């Protein structure tokens, strides 16, 4: 099983960053090791094959997110991708078609799947290079996030939720080291129980539950992106933004950057107080929305 997992990692690395929208299926190839390994998986028990398909699906999703942080895949999209890998594994086992045919069909399915779930991708990549440049998604030190988000650690209302906390959860870990009850959500798989794997559009934030909610270059950055995009899911973002605000305790605050002027202007002033701060070296602001009552 370990060697199969290595093969899958190697295969994904082999096609890393290649542009699906160029109509050049020959760009995508299966390494010989992958072909050999997948042809021999029939000796595995069904549970191991299922686990391998799950692993491949998760790795592929991770790779898509690495290439473009604005891709989004809901449960249905993930299940559809899994079905594509079920077909692929079966094709290698039955060997009815040549490797070239299997590869070409798989590539077409992946392209259709990506186009169905993120239509903007075709627009930006159909005239791009063979290797696409990743859309950066960096993680920042806890101190930089504290400065940007205007957090006063000594006054922080608890518990704290970091929305899009990053793979390392730097801010959550730093706050916990200071004795503050803090949790993070992100779409990565975590082994730390304070960091929860969840899509921020699907997470149940609860009501009146959090003292402070933070999101540094996370939720609001994507909300802006969806607001500007023709096929953007701005309604779900708007709904989630309100869910986050209602998840605050009275007196609690949502600190985020960049700011969201197009929705902040509609906030009910009787319910929410908005403060904004310039950030040195950036052309956007930090917003802090306080739940008043
Ligand atoms: C630019 S990084 C910032 C990470 C962290 N806040 C920091 O400042 O270091 C944006 C984060 O948002 C996460 N993210 C993007 N879309 C998400 C989604 N739909 N649900 C949960 N997290 C998401 C990414 O995985 C990434 O970790």
TrEMBL record:
Gene3D superfamilies: Vaccinia Virus protein VP39
InterPro entries, per database record: SAM-dependent_MTases_sf
SUPFAM superfamilies recorded: S-adenosyl-L-methionine-dependent methyltransferases
Protein name as catalogued: Class I SAM-dependent methyltransferase
Source organism (scientific name): Sunxiuqinia elliptica
């Amino acid at each position: 099983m370990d060697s199969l997992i290595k093969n899958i990692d190697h295969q994904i690395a082999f096609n890393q960053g290649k542009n699906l929208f160029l109509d050049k299926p020959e760009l995508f190839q299966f390494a010989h090791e992958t072909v050999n390994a997948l042809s021999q998986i029939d000796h595995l028990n069904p549970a191991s094959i299922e686990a391998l398909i799950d692993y491949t699906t998760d790795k592929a999703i991770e790779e898509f997110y690495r290439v473009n942080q604005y891709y989004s895949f809901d449960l249905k999209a993930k299940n559809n991708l899994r079905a594509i890998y079920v077909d692929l594994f079966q094709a290698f086992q039955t060997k009815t078609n040549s490797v070239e045919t299997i590869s070409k069909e798989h590539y077409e399915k992946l392209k259709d799947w990506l186009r169905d779930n993120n239509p903007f991708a075709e627009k930006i990549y159909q005239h791009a290079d063979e290797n696409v440049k990743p859309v950066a998604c960096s993680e920042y030190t806890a101190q930089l996030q504290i400065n940007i988000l205007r957090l006063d650690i000594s006054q922080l209302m608890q518990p704290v939720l970091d929305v899009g906390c990053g793979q390392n959860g730097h801010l959550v870990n730093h706050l916990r080291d200071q004795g503050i009850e803090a949790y993070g959500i992100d779409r990565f798989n975590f082994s730390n129980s304070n960091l929860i794997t969840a899509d921020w559009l699907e997470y149940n934030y609860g009501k009146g539950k959090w003292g402070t909610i933070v999101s540094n270059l996370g939720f609001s950055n994507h909300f802006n992106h969806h607001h500007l995009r023709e096929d953007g899911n701005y309604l779900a973002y708007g709904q989630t933004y309100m869910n986050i605000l209602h998840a605050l305790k009275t007196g609690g605050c949502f600190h985020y950057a960049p700011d969201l002027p197009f929705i902040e202007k509609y906030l009910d002033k009787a319910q929410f107080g908005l403060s904004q701060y310039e950030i040195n070296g950036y052309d956007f602001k930090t917003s802090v929305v306080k739940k008043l009552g």
